[in-house]
Input
Amino acid sequence: MDVPVREVFRPSSLPEALAVLSERPGARPIAGGTDLMVQLRDGRAHAAALVDLGRLGLDLVLESESELEIGAATRMDRIAAEPRIRSLFPALAAAASQVGAWPIQCRATLGGNLANASPAADTAPPLLVEGALLKVASSAGTRRLAIEEFFLAPGRSALAPGELILSVVLPFPGTDAGARTVERFAKVGARREQVISLVSLAGRAVVGADGTLSEVRLALGSVAPTPVRARHAERVLAGRAPAPEVRREAAAALQQDIAPIDDVRAPARYRRLAAAVLLDRFLEEAARA
Amino acid sequence: MPEPVRVTLTLNGERRTFHVPPGRRLLDMLREDAGLTGTKEGCGSGECGTCTVLLDGSPVTSCLVLAASVDGHDVVTVEGLSRAGRLHPLQEALVSLGGIQCGFCTPGIAVTGAAVLARHENAPAEHARLLSGNLCRCTGYTKVLGALKAAATAGEENRG
Output
C-alpha cells in the first residue's frame, strides 16, 4: 500500500533541499525511512510532501584535529564498522550495531534516529555521554546545538520548522597519561534483534591509576520522556572507585534520574530494576579497567 | 490524483523506468509495477525481513523504502539471484538440505543470505547475527543456517 503523500522532492543540493523545506510547511525530510514509512502508513505521522535526502552527500565521516563529524545520512552499518568510531566512540558504534537487524542497519541513518526524538533512540544515550553537537541548517543559516538541548518530549525536538540535521559532531575525548577511558553501551529487550529498547544505557568514565572515576557521564533511553543524563548517579561516582557499596549508592541515586512509565512493553518497576542492572554492569567493567 | 514520479533504476541487471505514485513503496513497485512477485510482504513494518531485496548490494526491507528514493540505484530481487538459469548456490543448498518449510520467508532469506555470502563471511555466529532480521514462523532456522554454512563452505572451496 502506498503511503499517503502527494509529492516527493529529490533535491540534488542542500540549498535546494532547504528551500523546499522552508517553502512547504507540510514537507518532511526522509532519509532511510525505516521509522517514518511505518509512521506514515499507520497514520501516526503526516506529510504533504517528502523531501528525499539521498542526493545531498550527507553520508560521510570527517576527521579534524579535535573532532569527528558524522553526516546525518550516514547509515548504521557504516557507523558500526568505521574504525575511528569504534576506537574513539565505542558506545556509539555498539548502539549502531544493535539498531533493528542487519537490513535495517543498511538503511537507517544517524540523523533519522535522532530526528524522530524517540525516547528509545539507541544512538541517543551514547551521543549524550560523548558530548555530541548537532549541526543543523535551514534556509536562514546553520547553527550548532548540544545534543542535551535537542530532545524536548516524545516525538518533539528542538528543530525549528524547515530545519534539517546536517551532521553530528563528536569532540575527541582527552585522556591523561596513566588513565583509561571506559565507554560502553547496553540495551535490554525481549530479544537481541528488532526490538525497541526497554532500557538502554551508555556510560563513559575515566579510570585513574588508583581506580577512581572521573569525568563520569551516564545516559539512558526508554526511561523518561526523552533520552536522559543520569546526573545524580554521576555525582555519586565522581572521584570514587566503583567498590560494591559505591555501586549500590549509585544505583539508588540513578532512580532519581529516571521516570519510566508502564506501557505494553514493560512495567515501570521492571525498567527501574533493569536500569540499575545496566549501570552496575558498566561499573563492574570500570572496576576491572 | 498526485502526479506520478519517474524512477529509473537497474533492476536485476536491466535498466528499467517506472512511473509510480509519490507514496509508493519499493515493495509495491517491484510486485505491482515490475511484476516481480517473488518478493513477499510479511509485516509491512520492517520487522520480519520477508520483503528483503538488495539495494546497491546491501539487504534492505523493501516495505520501508520509498520507491522514489531508488532512482539511479541498483536493486536485485530474489528473481535476480539466479545466473544463466541456475539457482544461486544458497538457493541450491536451501533446496537440497531442506531449508524450506512453508516457503513464505524463503525469498527474503535467500536475498539476505546471498548478501552474507557476498561478504565471504564464514563464521556461524556472524551468519546467525546477519540473518537475525529474517523471521521464519515455521521456526526452521537450523536447516537455513545449515544451508548457509554449506553454501559458504562450497564458495570457499571454489575460490581455492
Remarks:
- Chain A has a mean pLDDT of 95.
- Chain A touches chain B at residues 1-8, 10, 30, 32-34, 37-38, 40-41, 49-50, 52, 54, 77, 100-104, 106-107, 192-194 (CB under 8 Å).
- Residues 268-288 of chain A form the longest helix (21 residues).
- The domain at 7-52 of chain A is CATH 3.30.43.10 (Uridine Diphospho-n-acetylenolpyruvylglucosamine Reductase; domain 2).
